[in-house]
Amino acid sequence: MIKGLFETHLFVENLERSIDFYANVLKLEMYLFEEERRAALFWIGKPQQAMLGLWERPKEEIDIRHFAFECDWDWILNDSIKFLKSNNLNFWNFLNDGSQQPMVFANIPAIAIYFTDPDGHYLEFIGTLPGKYSPEKGSQVLTYSQWLEAEQREKQ
């Protein structure tokens, strides 16, 4: 029945600032702007694939949300940190080792890095790694090299 997530919406304090961020930094295609309703809609990926809606509201009406952008895993591994740094974006992982690298959720398996938009919403780049879904691994978070080593051990 359900095949995916088609749209998500965020409240933002300054619509023009958020349009600039999502269009010019994250390179999403805006397909609708409604001045009267103070809203902008963007395609995520290909047109008609998934949508992000931004709605301007006063700061006190904004509650922080989280969602993830699906990306190629090798881009996340090799280029995401350069991208985030070059755009002066605050980013983090859950490795608790002080490193500035993407992390791997071992159970999915997927590689990810978190960052924020201008309103403080938690955004994520995530890409599914080659490998099988292993729910028994729970919420284990690894570095990419730790994940590769674990994968090699499992194959032996």
Q: How much of the residues is beta strand, in percent?
A: 25-35%
Q: Write down the CATH class of the largest domain.
A: Alpha Beta
Q: The CATH topology of the largest domain, please? A: 2,3-Dihydroxybiphenyl 1,2-Dioxygenase, domain 1
Low-confidence stretches: none
Identify the CATH architecture of the largest domain: Roll
Task: Explain this structure.
The protein has 156 residues and is an alpha+beta fold. It folds into two domains: 1-63, 2,3-Dihydroxybiphenyl 1,2-Dioxygenase, domain 1 (Roll); 66-156, 2,3-Dihydroxybiphenyl 1,2-Dioxygenase, domain 1 (Roll), CATH 3.10.180. Helices cover 23% and strands 31% of the residues. The chain contains four helices and ten strands. The termini are far apart. The model has no long low-confidence stretch (mean pLDDT 95).
Summarize, please.
The chain is of the alpha+beta class. The chain has helices at 15-25, 73-78, 80-86, 144-155, and strands at residues 7-12, 29-34, 39-43, 51-56, 66-70, 91-92, 103-105, 110-116, 122-128, 141-142.
List descriptors:
156 residues, six-stranded mixed β-sheet, 2,3-Dihydroxybiphenyl 1,2-Dioxygenase, domain 1, alpha+beta, 10 strands, four-stranded mixed β-sheet, 4 helices, 23% helix
